[in-house]
Amino acid sequence: MSDGSIEMSTLHREGLAPILEDDARDDDALLGSENDLEEASKLVRGEPGIWVWLLVVSAGISGLLFGYDTAIISSALLQLANPPESSPIPALTVAEQSLVTSITSISALISSLCSGPISEYGRKKAILAAAIVFILGAVSQSVAGSVQGLIVGRFIVGLGVGAGSAVVPMYITELSPAHLRSRLNTLNTVFITLGQIVAYLIGYWYSHTPFGWRPMFLLGGVPAAIQIGLLFFLPESPRWLIQHGYVEQATSVLARIYGIKQEASNAADKRMLSHLVRSIERGVRSENELTSTSAKWRSLFGKRGNKRALLISGGLQGFQQLCGFNALMYFSSLIYAMLNFKNPTLTSLSVAATNFTFTLISLILIPKVGKRRLLLYSVPMMALGLLTAAYGFSHLPSHEITGASKTEPPNTTDPSSSFYAYVILFSTTFYVASYASGIGNVPWQQAEFFPMSVRSLGTAIATACNWSSNFIIGETFLGLMERMGAVTTFVLFAVICIIGWVGIYLGYPDTEGMNLEEIEALLSR
Ligand SMILES: O[C@H]1[C@H](O)[C@@H](O)[C@H](O)[C@@H](O)[C@H]1O
């Protein structure tokens, strides 16, 4: 049965109907604390333990690939811009370098928009499709014999990045028990940032090998192949299963997630399970009311709760990129070279390492402090870091980046220059740490804001806001530095942080520990 409806006969077959009917009779009782899945799960919760974490790790490989494929390009470009004589690809011009970098954001933008309809066929299938595309992209990039071939390869890999970035957080959100949801989603960002570190290390490893860019690209296919193997053991999202009438499978997945023994005769356990199923079923019912895509669009842009969800998640995703973090990720070697640091590649590895470390720290902080508070504390720190960096730049003899090959290092015989170079290094590191603690990962928890009926569509649009802003920053950063200078550029990013903070203060709700249905009710108020 895959028409999206749940027949009562199916429920009888599954043996759940009596329990559900019983629950329905007791609805009033359920409206108290039992209506809170979090509370209910505490009553009967065994330990979901390693199983849920393993699921997230398997799905998180898409995050690893996202990080790897977006970061490996900076090391590959260093080689492609200075190829050996025997190279079939002539040295890339600056315009070609920009295109090879940014084409990935464009295809990620396209595929994130298409990920909505694709994930309607199953979250697992969408993750599988992304993994296959990652492999195709890795192979086509590594065998490229021309600039056009490279561009096609980068385009393909971007399709995998975009689809994975939209579907995996949604899968994790739908699979996680309420009390672990934030943490498990942060784990996905930990994977993204780990992928970026791995990319820098592999880039560094192959930096002196002629045509080292080929293995750099090819290695991106390995985790994707592993993920395809692991996908056989991954369950489908219980929400998707219930939506498509597979109540029995959904029940057994939920039982494992919440650490409930399915065959247990324990009434509390059975009640808990049936309650979980019923609560998802409520969401599914609203899904079934919206069968056509146009009805979903109307609901997304027409219903108060959905409009708010879109504004919050899309706004946060846009802000995550417009605050300029990826400018550092992509161009920090260039900035540190301009500041005359001896080994700019290693210095920029410090950006990736700080990003990874503080994303890990936020894994612990988020459940304790809450996402809203963490954002409100960390975003002003980002602004402070940026303004301090601007202050450092203002004391350097030249604070303009005039293109990869034309950097003008500060006068190193002047000791104050190197002092201000360190001011910039420390303040940008501080900025990265503050970014990673909050805005670097919170936006990816967007799926929780959307009710089931418009979740895949809403998530897809919010993710597209991320990729379009990512593209804007990647394309304009060097131009801004060239035309306005580093001081103005960094002050501009600080102003964006302050505007973002005001938006968060006014609009970002505190959803910590709430189940998805409660969040829906909160946003519709
Ligand atoms: O959440 C991730 C993470 O912060 C990455 O480090 C960054 O490169 C991505 O653009 C972002 O979406």
TrEMBL record:
Keywords: Membrane, Transmembrane, Transmembrane helix, Transport. Its main location: membrane. One of its GO terms (molecular function) is myo-inositol:proton symporter activity. It is found in: Membrane. It catalyses: myo-inositol(out) + H(+)(out) = myo-inositol(in) + H(+)(in). The keyword Methyltransferase does not apply. It is a multi-pass membrane protein. One of its GO terms (cellular component) is membrane. InterPro entries: MFS_dom, MFS_sugar_transport-like, MFS_trans_sf, Myo-inositol_Transporter, Sugar/inositol_transpt, Sugar_transporter_CS. Residues 55-512 form the Major facilitator superfamily (MFS) profile domain. The chain crosses the membrane at residues 50-68, 88-114, 126-144, 150-172, 184-206, 212-234, 309-339, 345-367, 374-393, 419-442, 454-473, 485-508. GO terms for biological process: myo-inositol import across plasma membrane. Belongs to the major facilitator superfamily. Sugar transporter (TC 2.A.1.1) family. PANTHER family: PROTON MYO-INOSITOL COTRANSPORTER. This is Major facilitator superfamily (MFS) profile domain-containing protein. It comes from Dactylellina haptotyla (strain CBS 200.50).
